[in-house]
Write a structure and sequence with these properties.
By secondary structure, this protein is α/β, with parallel strands linked by helices. The chain has 19 helices and 20 strands. Strands 9-8-10-11-13-12-18 form a seven-stranded mixed β-sheet, sandwiched between helices. The two termini are about 35 Å apart.
Length: about 575
């Protein structure tokens, strides 16, 4: 047994059921008590192209997907050609012998084990169709690692129950056909066996689902979006929960309509959220400024993908940070929060709603495809950790006591009492022009200066309340790795690998990027021997922000911008080289 861990990958042409197969395999092991991290890759095409789905399964906590592959399921020849270099020594390839031709010599000297199966034939013999080759492969994969079919059959029942008992049964029969054929025809000599470590069933979520759950628990009642990868998952999830939680989910005609609808819903008193990617956010920036100017709460999920322009629509990256920090014209508080994993997506979405309400301003939750579409096992999510705070939203009773209501009253914190439409005593102008305390337009220089200062004080007030950035690993370590967003998992995994080689560093994770925790960051960096920043963009955008806010230039950068996430194996090597002085 090799550390009770397996890296499994399935690949084939679009339409082969790659995604549902990968999700079922993930659920088998999350339900069996394992830690799971998965991720899917697919081309930016309407139809066709190569799809793959990869899992890292472990009896110990895992933080990210690994690049190496222990068991590759190839539904076509292209899968082998694309991924054979990632196979570990002693790995296995389970393939459809009717369409894939392989020989052991191709994989020398790795001594790869080959498992040829006539997948379509086995599916048909079991009463299924050619399309169910993927289900045959699921059963065969479990046989290779010496597992059983019990949990797989439970999940097949869950996934296909809406299609009726006959569909459930034929899928079980097809999976069993692959399982039994493998057991009868091949010896059980594969080195990776997964021994169940816990009877605890772990929750398996991707970032989109976690954001949606966080929004629901925060009391969100209006969500609008125009579908745009990789933010569409939030729309799909909330739409599926619309009736259950009394939500209004609106698929609008474009992102301009999206943000204006949500701002209107928030103005009317409900918690509102939108989700988009960089191109859609480009259309939202005027609405963003309007919401800030009329001091209306709003949560915006911006799921990054590589740009510029259409860029790589179905791939991942972190190239939007500078854009988010300066989007829309003029000066106003831009609050930007970057969750680092699925669990943080849940809790920080709840926090984002509280901040938006408390400071009466838009809040941007920035994620990326690696987070929104990658599943991970998480512990029990406890919504009670984040108490709902609607801020200075006055009740009808409080409004009845107002004699001279100033919606934009100048206050030390920058936050003014807020009224909802139709409440007696709470009439005011919501004006996107510069305005006085009542909301009436004004170009008086004193009014302008006072209102600008008032709005900007919100950032100062919020900065005093925000938690400090997170430090992971040995705090006494002399060297510091910095990252934000989805680089968290690969960095933690890479440092775990380096720890085994006696190399030690701490990880500074920046979650609240604006307002920026300049004093805390500067204190950590000034005490560090070496500082290395890890980002999924070409220019080191966080490094530039750190220099702007602290005056410290970070020269050691590990940057990746090919549309793929960091993998701990490659990141570990780059960090080791930099820490040893060979960068």
């Amino acid at each position: 047994m090799q550390n009770n861990k397996l890296n499994w990958k399935i690949g084939g042409e679009a339409g082969y059921g790659i995604m549902v197969t990968g999700q079922i395999f993930s659920r088998v092991f999350s339900r069996s008590g394992f830690y799971v991290f998965d991720y899917t890759e697919y081309p930016s095409l309407i139809r066709g192209g190569h799809n793959s789905y990869q899992l890292t399964i472990s009896g110990k906590e895992t933080f990210s997907l690994e690049k190496s592959v222990d068991l590759l399921v190839a539904l076509n020849q292209e899968t082998v050609e694309r991924h054979k270099d990632d196979l570990t020594p002693g790995a296995a390839v389970l393939y459809d012998e009717e369409v894939v031709k392989l020989s052991p010599e191709e994989f020398s000297p790795k001594e790869i084990k080959l498992y040829p199966l006539a997948l379509a034939k086995l599916a048909r013999e079991a009463g299924g169709e050619k399309l169910m080759r993927n289900t045959v492969a699921l059963g065969a994969s479990l046989a290779i690692i010496d597992d059983d079919l019990e949990v797989l059959e439970e999940i097949i029942g869950d996934v296909f129950k809406r299609k009726g008992k006959d569909v459930v049964q034929v899928n079980m029969d097809v999976a069993r056909a692959g399982f039994n054929y493998l057991r009868r025809n091949f010896s059980p000599d594969f080195g990776h066996k997964l021994k169940k470590v816990s009877s605890r069933q772990r929750l398996l979520l991707n970032g989109s689902e976690a954001i949606g759950l966080g929004a629901i628990k925060a009391g969100c009642k209006f969500f609008a979006a125009y579908p745009m990868t990789p933010a569409s998952g939030v729309l799909h999830y909330l739409a599926s929960q619309e009736e259950r939680f009394d939500l209004v989910v609106k698929h609008a005609e474009d992102e301009i309509a999206v943000i204006n609808m949500a701002a209107g819903a928030s103005f009317a008193g409900v918690r509102a959220m939108v989700a988009t990617s960089g191109g859609g956010f480009s259309l939202m920036v005027e609405g963003l400024g309007m919401a800030a100017g009329v001091e209306t709460p709003l949560v915006i999920v911006e799921a990054q993908r590589p740009g510029p322009s259409t860029g790589l629509p179905t791939w991942t990256g972190q190239g939007d940070l500078k854009f988010l920090l300066s989007a829309s014209q003029g000066d106003f508080p831009r609050i930007v929060i970057a969750p680092g994993d699925v669990e943080e997506c849940f809790y920080l979405t709840m926090e984002a709603f509280n901040i938006a309400d408390k400071y009466q301003t838009p809040v941007i939750l920035v994620v990326d495809k690696y987070l929104t579409e990658g599943h991970a096992t998480v512990g029990e999510l406890d919504a009670s950790r984040v108490k709902v705070d609607r801020g200075l939203l006055l009740s009808e009773e409080e409004m009845s006591k107002q004699e001279d209501f100033k919606r934009y009253e100048l206050t030390p914190s920058g936050v003014s009492p807020r009224s909802l439409p139709s409440r007696a005593g709470g009439i005011f102008n919501a004006n996107s022009d510069e305005h006085n305390e009542y909301g009436f337009s004004s170009d008086d220089p004193k009014v302008r200066t006072a209102m600008m200062d008032k709005r900007m004080r919100k950032s100062d007030s919020l900065a005093k309340e925000l938690p400090s950035p997170k430090l992971h690993g040995p705090k006494e370590a002399q060297d510091t790795i910095i990252g934000w967003g989805s680089t968290k998992g690969p960095i933690l995994s890479a440092l775990k690998l380096l720890e085994g080689e006696g190399i030690e560093a701490k990880f500074l994770q920046l979650t609240y990027l604006s307002p920026f925790p300049a004093k805390f960051v500067k204190k950590i960096l000034e005490k560090s021997r070496k500082v290395i920043i890890v980002e999924n963009n070409q220019t080191g955008q966080l490094a530039a922000l750190i220099r702007e806010k602290t005056g410290i230039e970070i020269k050691l950068k590990v940057l990746k911008y090919d549309g793929r996430p960091f993998f701990p194996e490659e990141l570990g090597e780059k960090l080791k080289s930099a820490l040893k002085g060979n960068a």
